[in-house]
């Protein structure tokens, strides 16, 4: 659905029932009326605003690479006097 056009004073959208592309002046945004093609009740949408930026992008850790993990160093056990 496109809601803007090269002509900034027109709003373009599709009928939800018959999918006919319709255009109305921006002054009629949000106004309801019948589709001129099928007669279904439609509402001229409000122009889409820029989508707000997400609060934070998802953070994913890469999979663990077992071939490049630091080697495990074996240490001798030291007996603790008791």
- What order do the SSEs take from the amino end to the carboxyl end, as H and E? EEEE
DSSP strand tally: 4
Strands of the largest sheet, in order across it? Answer: 1-2
Kindly, what is the distance between the CA atoms of the first and last residues, rounded to a whole number of angstroms? 80 Å
Shape: rod-shaped
Describe the main β-sheet briefly: 2 strands, antiparallel
Which class do the helix and strand fractions yield?
mainly beta
Task: Tell me the radius of gyration.
Answer: 31 Å
Q: Determine the strand fraction and express it as a percent band.
A: 15-25%
In DSSP terms (H or I, runs of 4 or more residues), the helix count works out at 0
Unreliable spans: none
Helix content: under 10%
Mean pLDDT: 76
Q: How would you describe this structure to a colleague?
A:
0% of the residues lie in helices and 20% in strands. By secondary structure, the chain is mostly beta strands. The chain has a domain at 1-47. The model has no long low-confidence stretch (mean pLDDT 76). The chain has no helices and 4 strands. Strand 3 and strand 4 (41-43) form a beta hairpin. The protein has strands spanning 10-14, 21-25, 32-34, 41-43. It has a two-stranded antiparallel ribbon with strand order 1-2.
């Amino acid at each position: 659905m496109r809601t803007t056009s090269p002509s900034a004073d027109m709003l373009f959208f599709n009928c939800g029932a018959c999918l006919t592309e319709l255009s109305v002046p921006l002054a009629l945004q949000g106004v309801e009326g019948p589709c001129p093609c099928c007669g279904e009740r439609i509402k001229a949408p409000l122009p889409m605003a820029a989508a707000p930026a997400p609060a934070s992008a998802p953070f994913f850790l890469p999979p663990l690479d077992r071939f490049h993990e630091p080697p495990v160093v074996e240490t001798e056990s030291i007996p603790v006097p008791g």
